[in-house]
Structures are given as C-alpha cells and as structure tokens.
Structure to design on (396 residues):
C-alpha cells in the first residue's frame, strides 16, 4: 500500500512512518523535511504535493498547527493559525487529494480530545478539532469509489511530555494505542468515524 | 435586558426578536437591514458593530452563511464561505464582543444537527457547526465575570420548508422549540452547552 504521511517529521508522524514502513511504501511529507516538503496552509503547496505524489492508497495527516495561548489576548489573527492549519489545511488535503486517491483508499485526519474535553489556552485547537470531526462524518457520505475517511482523536500523547502540564487529568495516550487507532482507520473498514485511542 | 440579535432579518432572528421584544430591549443586526447593518465575514464590520452597540447583556447569533452544494465541485473557494461566515464570523462576534458584554452576560451562537447527522451537500455547514460546538465548550471555561456561552443546535426548522427535501428523516423543529432553546441559553444558567431543541 502506498501511504502518504503528512506531518511525517513530527512526533506522531515519525512514529507512524516507522511502524508502517516495514510493510508499506511510505511517502513522508513535512513542512521542513521528509521526502516531499509541503505547507498545508497553502492551497498551491497542497496541489504541488499531490502532483508530485501521484496516485496513492492512504493519506494520514498528523499535521495540525494551531494557536496555543491565553484567551484574553486571542483575536482573529491568532485564531487563524488553527483555521488555516489544522482545519482548512487538513480539509484541503482531502478536497484536493480525492482527485489522486485510488478507489478503496482512505483519508485519516488528526483531531483531538479537546473537541469534547476543553483545556485552558486551547480554544483554537478545540474549534479546529470539532470542525475536522464533523467534516469526516459529512465527507464519508459523499466520497465515492469505496473511499473512506476517519479522524483519530487522541488526548495528549505519551511522547509529548512537554504538553502534560496543559492537560491535567488526561491519561496520556501511548504511542502504541495511537498507532492502532491509525491502523483501524487505514486497514479497517470504518468510515465517518472518530477513533479515540485511549 | 439589552439583547443583540445578529441575523435579525433572517427566519430565526426575526422570530426571536419578535418573541423577546415584549420584555427586552432588542438591537436588530442584519447584513441588509435591521437597526444596525453588519457583515460578520468582516472583522472591521464586527468592530464597528460593537462600537455602535456599546455595552449589552446578551448576544444571540443566528447568522450562519455557509456553502450548500455537491461534494464533487467543492473546493477551498466554496469551503471558505462557511469558514468565514458561520465559523469565523460567529467566533469573531465572541472574541470582539467580550470586550463590550456586561458581567453576567451571555453569548448564544447557532450550530446545527449536521454536526452529528450529516446530509449530502452540507459538508461545509457540518464543519462550521462542529467548530462552533467545540468552541463554545472551550470558551466557556475561559470567559470570566460570569459571562456564559452556549450554542443552539437545531435540525431543519419549521419555517424553512424550502430545506425540508435536503433533510430526509429529520423532524422539523418548531419555532416554539427553537425559541425555548435560545431562552434556556439567554435566561438560564447553562454555559459551554450545546442545546438541541427537538
């Protein structure tokens, strides 16, 4: 299977690429490294990415830039970070990528537990996650040729301890549980689902 | 109570203004009419709106422009209609409006059942709704001075029969149930809730 991993130089993407590369062809996409560089906040960059990738069987996105910071100083400007990144960036990966994905392929986007379990400083990521989760449910009923779409929605992850203080009460998700969440989406039959590895 | 209704010339906003005007001071805001005109897709217009309104006790938004149309021709361009309208427009009403709202006041935004019950042609509205619902949960834990925020999430409404064919299986929400959903948010004590009038 040819699997495109967008965000492949990040903590999650690197782990997933390592887990899947034994059995599959992995195309690593990152903003500053990988096999192909792409900036998901730019529609042009996404279009170039797929022109270079060509056809593929699965796309995994772990790329979710968003604004983290205090509510009081949050304005339109800060909010656009997650709007153009985690939200529209990932949605454009699907809107453009559907022209290149093989029949029976799958898209797996990254959301997060903040959708339902908010934490201080994360209103921007929460909104982006909520949009992504609703989007995959809506896109699933319209994609044809057996193409599936899901979101994986972890809480803070084991290998990002720098975020633990921001997520009081959240048991960190192990990298193995995270990997199996993505496995369920990519190799299973589910579509329109929000998979919550815990 | 001074209640600002954004979307006051639309079907929902007009009804709510009529229901609440007996007991409250209503400021009707519309894109093409009302006491004050404002375009919620423009941050400048929102800033001017609040300069004109001054302090207030409750803001109701029923303003949710989004793109309705077939999945196959949906691109970044179409998707931005809901992104700038129902999503960022409403979020900017809160980000800017919080500087003008009185202590103990409330924001009530409009979402919709498409968040969890998608229908064909509505992926854009679904994503916007999902973002709004997650946003109110996140904003509720950061707003101070007793300021509350909720979303009302109806399915298709009784007075918009032109939409019935797009929502097979959805029992239309009566205008009375819709009104009571907004009453719960504006006059009750709930915050961070998605109220689903049915």
């Amino acid at each position: 299977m040819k699997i495109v991993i967008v965000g492949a130089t990040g903590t999650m993407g690197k782990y997933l690429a390592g887990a899947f590369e034994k059995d599959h062809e992995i195309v690593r996409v990152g903003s500053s490294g990988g096999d192909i560089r792409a900036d998901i906040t730019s529609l042009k960059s996404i279009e170039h990415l797929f022109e270079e990738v060509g056809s593929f069987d699965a796309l995994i996105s772990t790329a979710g830039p968003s604004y983290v910071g205090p509510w009081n100083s949050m304005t339109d400007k800060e909010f656009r970070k997650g709007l153009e990144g985690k939200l529209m960036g990932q949605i454009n990966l699907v809107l453009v990528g559907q022209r290149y994905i093989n029949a029976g392929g799958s898209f797996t986007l990254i959301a997060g537990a903040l959708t339902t379990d908010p934490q201080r400083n994360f209103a921007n990521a929460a909104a982006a996650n909520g949009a992504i989760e609703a989007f995959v449910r809506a896109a699933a009923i319209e994609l044809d040729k057996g193409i599936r779409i899901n979101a994986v929605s972890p809480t803070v992850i084991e290998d990002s301890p720098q975020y633990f203080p921001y997520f009081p009460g959240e048991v960190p998700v192990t990298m193995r549980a995270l990997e199996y969440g993505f496995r369920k989406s990519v190799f299973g039959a589910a579509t329109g689902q929000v998979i919550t590895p815990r």
Summary: The radius of gyration of chain A is 16 Å.
